[in-house]
Batch of 2 targets.
Target 1
Amino acid sequence: MTQPFELPSFYMPYEASLNPHLEQARVHSREWARDMGMLEGSGIWELSDLDAHDYALLCSYTHPDCDGPALSLITDWYVWVFFFDDHFLETFKRSQDRVGGKAYLDRLPRFMPLDLSTPVPEPTNPVEAGLADLWARTVPAMSREWRERFAVSTEHLLNESIWELSNINEGRVANPVEYIEMRRKVGGAPWSAGLIEYATAEVPAEVARSRPLRVLMETFSDGVHLRNDLFSYQREVEDEGELSNGVLVLETFFGCTTQQAADMVNDILTSRLHQFEHTALTETPALCVQEGLDPARCAAVAAYVKGLQDWQSGGHEWHLRSSRYMNQGALDEKDSPLGGPTGLGTSAARVADLLTAAGAERFRAHTHVPHQRVGPSILPDFQLPYPTTLNQHLPAARENLVDWCHAMGIVHEGVWDEAALRRYDLALCSAGLDPSGTQADIDLSAAWLAWGTYGDDWYPVVHGRTRDLTGAQALTDRLKALMPVDGPLLPEPAAERDVPADAVAAARETLRAASAGGAPEAVAATAGPGAGVVPRTGLERALVDLWARTAGPMDHDSRVMFRDSVEVMLDSWMWELMNQAQHRIPDPVDYIEMRRATFGSDLTLSLSRIAHGKKVPPEIYESGPMRSLENAAIDYGMLINDVFSYQKEIEYEGEVHNLILVVQNFFGCDYPTALTIVHDLMNGRLRQFQHVAEHELPILYDDFDLDDEVREILAGHVKELENWLAGILTWHYGCQRYSSQYLSHGVGTLRPPGAGAPSGEPRGIVPANPGLPFAWKAAAQAMAL
């Protein structure tokens, strides 16, 4: 059969090696698969199929250092997961039996009890029998925390198959952003990462859920899945009619040829490997130091990182050889750019590839010249269909917010003054987000927006220009310590307090020291939770006040969830400072995911969920459709901000965290082209939001058999997100935070020395883009997030 495209040249910096216990694993996996009923008589595989797929070879490549028994067990897991994939295809996907597939999947978690003394059902098919056997053989050697994580990743791998089946039923190909998010779960790389821990070392619980470890797993996941999509396109798309394949997604989305789409997928794959390397070499060692890990636990993290690398290189070698995939000619000598050896591990020896396009992209990420003149921000024709209704309490909320910021000291420290606060008009945003809220609701919402915006300005002004990561981390630790989850939280009313003169002086000294290049000692001390931290700055005092007013009425679990959401935003500000210190523009995937955090999205969503009470099952919020709905709305809202703030951030602040700049830098295109790409992405996210609300949520509600009350609550949640989007756009048009004529007036704004005020010419308008010519191939890849 003719291949639909020529395989691209792959970036693979890690050399593969082969486990010496390969043959032992082959023999064992044959016997085990037959014992579980997966071979003759299963209607799915014969022994010849298992031998041709050679999962023992896959595991010997991807786990080269473990002993024989461990390799055999891991091989059994991979035999099981591939059998499940084929069994689900033949039993439910081909017949498009969604109801039967849902019932089949609902039973499988019962075979993964965290406590092995819990009885499991009698298996009724080879998938259930295999899972029961594997779980009992694996989990005794691992901690309960690992069991919980691995069970969740296994359930995601299984349950999201229903998402694929739903798309087949609709005849629908996902959009690129949705695809990357869902592929991580469906493709099973997080599940593979759990088995890497089994084969190497269990990740310490203190860092298992941290951002660097999450990014390592996600970039590993993207690399594994995108590589698999290239090799499996012919089997999945042409033979099985599968719609969940990255090449097909881009081919459909851009209307390009299969070869062009394959080249794009490979470019994104290369970018994700670069992100993996950056995180492994910079953020992960810093995390170990920050968390105070002892040498043994640091070694465990290092062994896990090496295990992820081994999987990447080993998985690539296996794809080159397995009969399951399209790999004709992939091992021919002509494919080696050096004309040299083509045996085991030589896919990592493509020196020419490493020094051309891949190296150029990596270098470009650190060569941006800050404070370039870009002129007024250009605004596209936003196609948001939701009207804005402003809350009747807006006039009073504006004045109440000014009074509160004075009481907290926010406008006395040199970063903002009252004139700037009034120009920003954050109460306008609150009034659009919550059109029916009470005066107290709007006042509290506006105060949170002011605190988050002030913090987003404080960190780069005070800590960014001096690369003071130590002081910034100390401040972050102090802020986290000011959010207790136990005991009563009853501050004095803000209006009855005066800001101590020495606190204002200390805050001003902090800003003065930063401007002069010194260390801002006013926030240099550290304190842990429960250490009785005394707030020193407006940022700290405001958080104490907001925390008490917001978390005070909550129960313990809600406080924990809400505090976690605030901490996500605090940590994202540190991530931005680290990139600024390294003068590094992030890649598009990393940027999109972290921008959700810097925009305060988790904080907003957690407040919404807490307000819904405990009537909505938590698994609804964690489901694929709900996360897809919320992320689509978040992405549109945060990209509104990127479009409006482009001149402010790029020209005046020397920022690197703006998707328009990320697209320009990553793909070498100009501002108008990058803006059009970002605008097209926004429209895609809006269509995704509408699609999920109209088509996927009703199915989700039926799957969980939700009653009318819960369905009404969730319908209200969709309306809240619509109000959120409309309110954000209205605020950006109505405030003066981003207007050219005011940018030079911002107190504490980072401006190039001697730069004059920008011209007062009006912003331009980019018409809505009717199509995306493929001639913009390089820039268009930004859409393949």
Target 2
Amino acid sequence: MGAKLYRITDQTAARMMDGLRIGQTPRMFAIRPARLTAYFETNPEFAAKARPLIEANAKAAELRKSAGKRDKTHCSRGHAFTPANTRFRKNSNDPRSECKTCERERAVHGNAMPPGSADRVRELLKKNARIASFTSAGRTGYVMSHRTFSRLRREDSEIDMLAVKIVEGARSGALHTRWGRIRNQAAREQQNDYYTIRAMLPENFPDKDDVVSAIFEDLLTGVLRREDVKALVKSYVSAQNKMFPTKYAKFGDSLLVSLDEALFDNGGGTRGDNVSRGLWD
């Protein structure tokens, strides 16, 4: 069961309003936000007057917190905060001055390295840890910034060799993944091309697979361009028909004849009747 929420009395609310008018905050009266919210719900007129004052006083309090840093004339390294050498933070609640000279030096040389950080980085590299795992701010294993790590590589040849090994391994893995994706994409495109080309052939054409294979062979050898397939499909069909004419049997040189053809001009018997009697009678 939670603690009991005591109600703000009207006398306390009046004293708080007097304090808000001179720049104080509810915290100075030891009033918790939950109690203040409950009082606002039952006294909307008081809330309409108090809320703007609370917001303005809170901003003023934030400005007072950073006043000491904001009013400095030199940075910690002795560089003067001149108009050309000063950059202000974008946060309006904390407009502190920052030295551009120090920023340029950090960009070139990196930040100062805490004691033991170089040894820790060396051990991580020996375990093949990813460089981003200890140079990305906000991560659990963060040790130093990437700029500081670059400086450490310039100063320590062993760490540089370990880093080169990891970078080369990562590049090799990335290339392997990339080429794997390219091969998979090519296989998918080839499969799609098979069904696309097959759909271009006449529906009753019997040798579709042979024609598709011939087209694929010319595509792979560079004889045929993919954008020309649709226009040249008929020529491949014609070439297939010339190689295997439909009026001749696949095996032998005899003409193909219909089983419904009459054997004699003055009779009703057909070739099919003759075959049936010859096979099963």
